[in-house]
């Protein structure tokens, strides 16, 4: 588990330096890939959350991955990718500050969820999981085309 986190940290560091140099189509593919990985993690976490019988360590690991993947997805929204056809509503680019804040909220809440789970605070972890889902929904409702 620690090896995965170290590798993701290294990947994050390398990709942050190069995200603005990517061609626009690659930026879109990059963020879409991160969002698919986030969806996978949420699909694992949701049944764990509902069952009330899960490993805090496993939950914390997946919540931490969500936070890191959120950062990766966010950096894929390069200015150059604005013109590429995707499921991003054009109003996102006009409201970039709000979008950035929503993404940062997701990143922060999922990081807090990982810490809470690791500390064994079940009630707070459950509340933060609900906040995570609300964060996803609010951003999708505003800035994602179906």
Largest sheet: none
One letter per element, helices H and strands E, the order comes to HHHHHH
The CATH topology name reads Four Helix Bundle (Hemerythrin (Met), subunit A)
Name of the CATH homologous superfamily: Cytochrome c/b562
Mean pLDDT: 89
- Low-confidence blocks of residues: none
Oligomer: single chain
CATH class: Mainly Alpha
Q: Quick one: overall form? A: elongated
Q: Calculate Rg over CA atoms.
A: 16 Å
Number of domains: 1
Decide which structural class fits the backbone: mainly alpha
Strand content: under 5%
Helix content: over 70%
How far is it from the N-terminal to the C-terminal residue, by CA?
A: 35 Å
Under the CATH scheme, the architecture is Up-down Bundle
Care to count the β-strands? Answer: 0
Helix count from the secondary structure assignment: 6
What does it look like?
This protein has 146 residues and is mostly helical. It has a single domain, classed as Cytochrome c/b562 (Four Helix Bundle (Hemerythrin (Met), subunit A)). The chain is built from 6 helices and no strands. α5 runs antiparallel to α6. The longest helix is centred in the N-terminal third of the chain and has 28 residues. The chain starts with a helix and ends with a helix. The mean pLDDT is 89.
Fill in the keyword field for this structure.
elongated, 6 helices, 146 residues, mainly alpha
Question: Briefly, what is this?
Answer:
The protein has 146 residues and is an all-alpha fold.
List strands and helices in order, with pairings.
Blueprint: H1 2-18, H2 24-51, H3 56-75, H4 90-94, H5 96-118, H6 122-143
Helix pairs in contact: 1-3, 2-3, 3-5, 5-6
């Amino acid at each position: 588990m620690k090896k995965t986190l170290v590798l993701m940290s290294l990947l994050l560091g390398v990709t942050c330096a190069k995200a603005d140099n990517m061609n626009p189509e690659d930026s879109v593919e990059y963020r879409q890939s991160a969002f698919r990985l986030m969806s996978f993690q949420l699909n694992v976490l949701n049944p764990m959350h509902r069952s009330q019988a899960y490993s805090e360590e496993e939950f914390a690991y997946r919540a931490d991955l969500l936070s890191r993947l959120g950062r990766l997805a966010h950096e894929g929204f390069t200015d150059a990718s604005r013109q590429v056809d995707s499921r991003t509503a054009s109003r996102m680019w006009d409201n970039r500050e709000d979008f950035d804040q929503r993404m940062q909220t997701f990143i922060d809440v999922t990081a807090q969820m990982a810490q809470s789970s690791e500390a064994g605070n079940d009630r707070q972890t459950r509340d933060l999981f609900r906040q995570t889902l609300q964060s996803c929904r609010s951003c999708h409702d505003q800035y994602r085309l179906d």
